[in-house]
Design a protein that fits this description.
It comes from Georhizobium profundi. The protein has twelve helices and 16 strands. By secondary structure, the protein is of the alpha/beta class. It folds into two domains: about 220 residues, FAD/NAD(P)-binding domain; about 150 residues, D-Amino Acid Oxidase, subunit A, domain 2 (D-Amino Acid Oxidase, Chain A, domain 2), CATH 3.30.9.10. α2 packs across α10 and α3 crosses α10. The structure holds flavin-adenine dinucleotide. The site of flavin-adenine dinucleotide has 40 residues, from α2, β10 and β14.
Length: about 425
């Protein structure tokens, strides 16, 4: 495939952009593959990419029921950070952050990673104590995170209201400067293009309807809308639909699926220089390169597979945004949408082998898996290739919900973005 470069752009500009290749092909499925990945989100496509690139597999398919990147990958608010509390999480998310920094070069595709800083506001004494504990724990793990007093928080993000009369006054903030955002579609497209270039088959509009197991219990392949496709190994990377798919193989997952919403405003000139999150009032905000404010809400309180969500949830979020940033109170919202997130009891992912031989699962990212995309895909590919976890994902097992060895980011963060 042709390399994207400034020279390629100049050449194409001279001839009306008629010479660009298709970014990936749409092949007919083979009767069988060495590895089938179910789900063409960032994590699934990335897994296929690293399996081909780092582990030398040549016969891989990624099977997607809709269009690639059309799940949570293309619906999220793209916040990237690695300042999680527990050692296991810090290791996993920081592995991802290290990969984000060179991902555009690695994929020869501009994923628009922008380390503009993620600032997490703290509104009461408990928040402040908990944030400072996070900062100390992060530093012990070699992860940047620093405490800002209210004046410093406002200097970092000028539209922020730090008046002490606010209902939720800003008592300070934790800032991870290496955190930021990336362009979500570009992540899916970049991995898809690079994986397809190494021979990975990306098969869209092909729902997986069954996972077949042989007489000895091992996986043998998947039933799909386009017939049976054999597979020696299967990786399920289906986000909010993971429990449905794993049920096809007879495995009950410790997951609940909730709608999670986001919305964007009309575009305005650059005003918002960073990402701001407030777990207490439950809102987070950044500004896209197009100028829209990108705003995220909390999950609905009930489980559902509808890709919408309750209106009162986004109303509550906008109330919070207007209190923290009164300057935005007259802006109009353009669009809102939802995705389905899969939530584990401890709010940490599962990246592991399963009790069924040949079946692997990558799920449970809940409201915060976009940031992990390259790291998750990288260690999941290792797990599938070697039938054993990478050191980084050793703790993210299914068994932890039986043994009680949890990675309890739920208690640590309240929300997980
Ligand atoms: C509104 C919203 C905001 C978010 N904000 C952030 C954020 O700011 N930062 C952050 O880090 N994370 C965020 N997240 C979470 C993040 O989007 C996800 O954790 C991450 O994108 C999951 O990626 P994935 O590749 O595992 O899943 P997906 O991109 O959802 O891919 C799974 C794919 O599996 C496919 N599939 C499902 N069932 C089948 C089947 N039977 N057969 C074939 N294919 C199937 C789906 O169609 C889908 O394309 C947010 C999520 C939402 C919804």
């Amino acid at each position: 495939m042709r390399k994207y470069s400034i020279f390629a752009i100049a050449r194409e500009a001279m001839r009306g952009h008629k010479g660009w290749d298709k970014q990936w092909s749409s092949p007919e499925p083979r009767s069988s593959y060495d590895i089938v990945i179910v789900g063409a989100g960032g994590h699934g496509l990335g897994t296929a990419y690293y399996l081909a690139k780092e582990h030398g597999f040549k016969n891989i398919a990624v099977i997607e029921k809709g269009w690639l990147g059309g799940g949570n990958t293309g619906r999220n608010t793209t916040i990237i950070r690695s300042n999680y509390l527990y050692d296991e999480s810090a290791g996993l998310y920081n592995h991802a952050l290290n990969l984000w920094e060179n991902l555009s070069q690695e994929l020869n595709y501009n994923v628009m990673y922008s380390a503009r800083g993620v600032m997490m506001l703290q509104h009461n004494v408990h928040d402040v104590q908990s944030a400072k504990r996070h900062i100390h724990a992060n530093r012990l793990n070699g992860i940047d995170n620093e405490w800002l007093e209210p004046d410093a928080a406002k200097a970092f993000c000028p539209p922020l209201n730090i008046s002490s009369n606010a209902r939720y006054p800003v008592m300070g903030a934790a800032l991870q400067r290496r955190g930021g955002v990336a362009r979500h579609d570009a992540v899916a497209w970049g991995y898809a293009r690079a994986a397809a270039d190494m021979g990975v088959h990306i098969i869209q509009n092909c729902e997986v309807t069954g996972i077949r197991r042989g007489a000895n219990g091992d996986v043998t392949g998947v039933d799909t809308a386009r017939g049976f496709i054999g597979a020696k190994k299967i990786g399920v990377v289906a986000a909010g639909h993971t429990s449905v798919l794993m049920d096809m193989a007879g495995i009950r997952m410790p997951l609940e699926s909730f709608p999670l919403q986001a919305l964007v405003s009309e575009p305005v000139k650059p005003i918002f220089p960073c990402v701001v999150m407030s777990n207490t009032v439950h809102a987070y905000i950044s500004q896209s390169d197009k100028g829209e404010l990108v705003i995220g809400a909390g999950t609905d309180q009930y489980t559902s597979y509808s890709q919408t969500g309750g209106l009162h949830i986004i109303q509550h979020t906008l109330d919070a945004i207007c209190e923290m940033f009164p300057i935005f109170s007259r802006m109009k919202m353009l669009r809102s949408w939802g995705g389905i997130v899969d939530v584990t009891p401890d709010r940490s992912p599962i990246l592991a082998k399963t009790p069924v031989k040949g079946l692997y699962v990558n799920c449970g990212w809940g409201t915060g898996g976009f940031k992990a995309t390259p790291g998750s895909a990288h260690v999941f590919a290792h797990t599938i290739a070697n039938d054993a976890p990478h050191k980084i994902n050793e703790g993210f097992t299914l068994e932890r919900f039986r043994t009680g060895r949890l990675i309890d980011e739920a208690a640590a963060a309240a929300v997980a973005h």
